[in-house]
């Protein structure tokens, strides 16, 4: 990759940097203070370096993760602060031992999931390019295959911000993934190994280095 000088505007500040750097590295190099919305080292979770960006000679504003987006000359970038959910979803995992009344449970915890307008806003907002709308629709119909759609979700909340129906697709996805893990059968060898560890037959030494 050719290392070229580039000037970008980040959070209103013009920064001279290099095209070999990521947007997050450019912010750190510039000496700008890291806030809770900039970098996983500030907020402690993946997805906290979410940004809105516009490239040179383009009117389109897109979403991205600063840690995996390379600097381009003329970029305009704005880091997004942490935005809490519009509503909180309360549920228990204690009774997730089968798929009986599965759809009723999903509708009870996330009643807004069935209100999807199919506008595609969540898909466009996702910096990981997941098929978020598809996952929401599958979950709303009681289809646990929705869990696969959200496997790489980083909980950045951008899909939630984009949704006009105030659905929280990332949290719905987390709910479905938890439910799937609870009701699906585990591999027999995994169950045996966990049982051996629990009985002390196969002790785990935390000081042993993995090779």
TrEMBL record:
It comes from the Bacteria. Keywords: Iron, Iron-sulfur, Metal-binding. GO terms for molecular function: iron-sulfur cluster binding; metal ion binding. Residues 107-135, 144-172 form the 4Fe-4S ferredoxin-type domain. Pfam families: Fer2 (PF00111), Fer4_9 (PF13187). The keyword Iron applies. The keyword Glycoprotein does not apply. Residues 6-83 form the 2Fe-2S ferredoxin-type domain. This is 4Fe-4S dicluster domain-containing protein. It comes from Pseudomonas luteola. The lineage of its organism: Bacteria, Pseudomonadati, Pseudomonadota, Gammaproteobacteria, Pseudomonadales.
């Amino acid at each position: 990759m050719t290392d070229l000088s580039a000037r970008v505007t980040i959070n209103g500040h013009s920064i001279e940097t290099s095209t070999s750097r990521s947007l997050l590295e450019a912010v750190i190099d510039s000496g700008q203070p890291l806030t809770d919305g900039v970098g996983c080292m500030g907020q402690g979770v993946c997805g906290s370096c979410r940004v809105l960006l516009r490239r040179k000679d383009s009117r389109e504003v897109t979403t991205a993760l600063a840690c995996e987006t390379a600097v381009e000359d003329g970029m305009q970038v704005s880091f997004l602060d942490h935005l809490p959910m519009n509503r909180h979803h309360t549920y228990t995992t204690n009774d997730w031992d089968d798929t009986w009344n599965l759809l009723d449970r999903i509708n009870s915890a996330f009643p807004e999931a069935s209100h999807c307008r199919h506008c595609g806003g969540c898909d466009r907002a996702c910096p990981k390019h997941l098929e978020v709308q598809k996952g929401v629709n599958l979950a709303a119909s009681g289809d646990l295959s929705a869990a696969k759609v959200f496997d790489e979700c980083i909980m950045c909340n951008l899909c939630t911000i984009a949704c006009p129906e105030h659905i929280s697709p990332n949290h719905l996805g987390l709910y479905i993934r938890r439910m799937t893990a609870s009701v699906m059968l585990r591999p027999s060898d995994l169950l045996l190994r966990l049982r051996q560890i629990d009985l002390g037959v196969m002790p785990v030494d935390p000081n042993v280095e993995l090779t």
